[in-house]
Design goal:
The longest helix is centred in the middle third of the chain and has 20 residues. The chain is of the alpha+beta class. The chain contains 19 helices and 18 strands. It is 44% helix and 19% strand. The chain has three domains: 198 residues, no CATH class; 138 residues, Protein Transport Mog1p, Chain A (3-Layer(aba) Sandwich), CATH 3.40.1000; 52 residues. Helix 4 packs across helix 6. It is globular and about 75 Å long. It starts with 6 loop residues before the first helix and ends with a strand. It has a seven-stranded antiparallel sheet with strand order 9-10-11-15-14-13-12. The chain has a three-stranded mixed sheet with strand order 3-5-4.
Length: 504
């Protein structure tokens, strides 16, 4: 009998949202042998089921941070990083976990996103910075991500995922726990998987709303106007509206962006509940430092990122995608396909198909391509694209690397055949590396490595976005892009003397 007030009962109470039968099943199989903690959420004060200590959380965060640095280009601007760190630490100092030790990284990517890892790691994409217009907006983005960290959202999801898996395979899980095999070490991959998924779609509406509420609280305590959180939502929703009009799909920032409508009553109530500052109490309202750091910031693809893989990068402008083929492979193309070949080594063919059904990429490979014997099966999620890849046998009997990646209304099918029987692993690795470079062509991306940069000017009495756009270096939708950059989308005009961003 579980005694009132016992740690076991407290743990069960942490799982209050789970069905009773489910609770009793996992109680005997999982909770008793693995009881780690029914911890108090440091941010909310409520109970949380977590299956790892804070020290383990930090350890996993550090290991995954190293992987991010190895796989993502870092924007090399020491002054800008110092500024983002200063703003971030101002927020962290008033958070519920001020002593965690926070690390900030600017990712050299034009995509509009930010993300966080357990243990205090915050990442902001260069592309997101270009569309922020005040320091308070930057602080709101960072505060939202710190809210995820302080509330231990990734750790909570890991715990629920572990228990859900246990319910599906209780016997196997009990064996693993009893023998000490597979559980603790799997936490790293579980958290990594959670991070990969949340970077695409967020933690879910409730956790995103909680991160917003915590972020607004931190903004208030740090001297910023909490309404900046709403301003960020507006900026990002404008991006979504524009992308949907131009490409037919939204896409964007995983957090605020993905879960809230523009006029979200719950979000507005959550932000209002933390209080507001009188005009004189908003101590962080001078944006001169912000403008100084953003002026000269690269917009679109940087020369470094283009030069890194320019040797055999292929652009398909009609379908809007690009990828890097293995070095020195010859390229042949049609309107819907492109094939790269190296005699004696292998080939890689990319074909665009209209996506007819809303099914997972791995299901597409099985049901639409008839591949039922997929080996080395794994998800593909680079550049916020969803896909799946693995190895099968080609019609000629050779190893064949296949993949399906979704981009807009299309699915791109990759078939890479290995013809070098003496070095199958090396050729397959090259094929997989090439597939992982597949992405959409970014607005403003040039083929010559020529960079475009933000330049601040003060608007004149006769400032007109349509007129300025005609002489802009922005190749596609210059007026709309300038409006998005300055927070005047789809309409509006800055007042004379107001600072605006141009592109040079």
């Amino acid at each position: 009998m579980t005694k009132l007030g016992s740690p076991e009962l407290k743990t069960l109470l942490c799982l209050g949202s789970f069905p009773k039968t489910f609770l009793m099943m996992i109680y005997a199989a999982v909770i008793l042998p693995v009881l780690t903690s029914c911890a108090v959420n440091p941010a909310t004060g409520g109970p949380n089921l977590v299956l790892m200590s804070e020290s383990r959380e930090k350890e996993i965060g550090a290991e995954e941070h190293a992987k991010v640095l190895a796989s993502q280009p870092v924007y090399q601007d020491a002054d800008l990083l110092a500024y983002v760190t200063e703003v971030g630490n101002r927020i962290a100092a008033v958070s519920h976990r001020p002593d965690l030790g926070y690390t900030y990284t600017i990712i050299d990517s034009p995509s509009i996103n930010a993300m966080a890892l357990p243990g205090g790691y915050v990442y902001v994409n260069r592309g997101l910075l270009t569309f922020m217009n005040t320091e308070a907006q930057l602080a709101a983005v960072v505060a939202h991500e710190i809210g995820h960290i302080t509330a231990r959202h990734a750790v909570q999801q890991q715990a629920r995922g572990a228990l859900a898996n246990a319910a599906a395979t209780v016997g196997g899980f009990v064996t693993a726990v009893a023998t000490g095999s597979g559980y603790a070490g799997s936490q790293i991959s579980e958290v990594a998987s959670i991070w990969a998924q949340t970077s695409l779609s967020g933690f879910g509406r409730e956790m995103e709303l909680e991160a917003d509420s915590l972020g607004a609280e931190y903004l208030l305590e740090a001297g910023y106007d909490p309404a900046a959180m709403i301003d960020v939502v507006t900026v990002l929703k404008n991006q979504e509206d524009f992308n949907r009009r131009v490409t037919g799909s939204g896409g964007g920032y995983h957090g605020l962006f993905a879960t809230h409508p523009r006029s979200d009553t719950r979000l507005q109530q959550a932000i209002a509940s933390v209080g507001e500052l009188e005009e004189g109490e908003v101590t962080m309202s001078d944006d001169s430092a912000f403008r100084e750091q953003i002026d000269g910031l690269i917009i679109g693809a940087s020369a470094a990122s283009q030069q890194q893989d320019a040797r055999n990068r292929y652009y398909q402008t009609l379908l809007g995608y690009t990828l890097v083929f293995p070095d020195e492979w010859g390229i042949r193309e049609t309107t819907t396909t492109v094939t790269a070949v190296m005699a004696g080594k292998g080939s890689l063919r990319v074909e665009a198909q209209r996506l007819q059904e809303n099914i997972e990429p791995r299901v597409f490979l099985r049901e639409k391509l008839g591949i039922t014997d997929l080996q080395k099966s794994e998800a593909v999620s680079q550049y916020r694209l969803l896909g799946h890849t693995g190895v099968t046998a080609s019609a000629s009997g050779n190893p064949e690397r296949v993949a399906a990646i979704y981009l807009g209304p299309r699915v791109f099918v990759f078939r890479g055949e290995v013809t070098d029987s003496t070095d199958i692993e090396t050729v397959d690795a090259a094929l997989l590396e090439s597939i992982r470079t597949f992405r959409a062509i970014q607005r403003g991306e040039t083929l010559l490595g020529d960079e475009m940069k933000i330049k601040y000017v003060q608007a004149s009495e006769f400032f007109d976005f349509s007129v300025v756009g005609q002489s802009s270096r922005i190749a596609n939708y210059p007026e709309e892009t300038l409006r998005l950059l300055n927070g005047f989308y789809p309409s509006g005009t800055p007042e004379a003397g107001e600072w605006v961003k141009l592109v040079e």
